[in-house]
C-alpha cells in the first residue's frame, strides 16, 4: 500500500495520493499543469472579450416585495387635495383680474371658489398627516430643496389670503354682517375699508395661485416613483393646465355669461396645455409610461380625457349660453379631478411593479456602457473612464 499524507508534511506541500489531488469545482485536477490555449482561440480571456461569470439575472424582488416603497398618502384624499389646490389657485388669479376689470359677480364667485378650495385643501392635508400639529411642525423649518417644505409655505399664506378675501366678501351680506357685529362690534366702523382689504387679499392670494396650482406636481416628481419621476418636466404643465381648466370651468359655471369671458378663455387655454403635456407623459417615456394606459389609472385617464374634451367643446360652442356654461364647466372640473386621480393611480402602480424600476435602470446602464465603448473607440480614454464610473 502507498502511504497517505500524515498531516505533518512541510508547509506549502500538499499530501500526495495516487490518482488524487486538488480539483476545481468543475472536476479539473489542479496538480496537473494546464496547457496554454492557442492565441486567437475562444475561452476565458481570449482577445478583449470579458467572460460572463453568471447568466444575466431576471428582474425580481426580494421574496416578492416591492423594490421601492409606495408613498403612504391616502387615496382619494390626496388626489382631491391636488384638484382643490389647483382649482383654488386658478380661481384666485381670476378673482384678482375680475376685481380690476369691473366684473363684480365674477370676482365674488371666484373669491368664494378660491376660499372654499383653500380651506378644504388644508383640511385634507391635515387629514392625510393624521394630526393637526404635524402641519404646524412642517412650518418650523423652511428648506428650499424640499418641495414639501416649500409647498407648506405656499399653502399657508395662500389659504390665509384666499379665505380672508372670501370672508370680507361675505360681510357684504347683511345677515353675515349682523352676526359678525355681535362678535366684533367694531365691524360697522371699518366697513368703508372692506373693498381695499378684499382687493389686497385677492391680489396676495393670486400671487401664490400659480405656485399653489403646480407645486404638487413638483412634489410627486421629486419622489423615486418611476412613472412620476420620469416625466418630471411635463407633470407641472399637466397640473397647470388641469388647474386652469378646473378653475375656469367652476367660475364659468357660477357666473353670468356676460362676465364669464375670462373664465372661458382660461379654461380653454388650460385644456390645450393639459392635453399636449399629458400626451407626452403617456407616450414619451418608454416603459414607465405604460401604467398610464393600464388598469384603474388607464380607465380614469380615458374618462378624464373624454370629460375634458367634451367640456372644452361645449365651452367653445355653447359657452355663451347659461346651459352650455354650466354643463361645460362641470365637465371641465370633473375632467381635472379624474386627471389628478389617474396620475396618482399610475404612480402607485409603477411603484408596486419591479419592472418599472429595474428595466429603466438597465437601459441607463447600457446607455452608459455604449457611450464608454464609443469613447474608447474614438481613442479618448479620459472620457471612457469618466463614463464607466
Strand content: under 5%
What is the straight-line distance between the termini?
60 Å
Query: What integer value in Å does the Rg equal?
Result: 32 Å
The percent range for helix content is: 55-70%
How would you state the average pLDDT, rounded?
A: 83
Low-confidence stretches: 1-31, 40-51
Number of strands: 0
Number of helices: 13
What general outline do the C-alpha atoms trace?
globular
List the helices and strands in order: HHHHHHHHHHHHH
**Most strands sheet:** none
SSE class:
mainly alpha
Question: Secondary-structure map with pairings?
Answer:
Layout lengths: L76 H23 L4 H26 L2 H7 L8 H24 L3 H10 L10 H28 L4 H4 L5 H20 L6 H23 L11 H24 L3 H31 L2 H23 L3 H8 L1
Descriptive labels:
single chain, 389 residues, mainly alpha, 65% helix, globular, disordered N terminus
Structure description:
- The chain is mainly alpha-helical and 389 residues long.
- The protein has 13 helices and no strands.
- Helix 8 packs antiparallel against helix 9.
- The longest helix has 31 residues.
Question: Can I get a quick summary?
Answer:
With 389 residues, this protein is mostly helical.
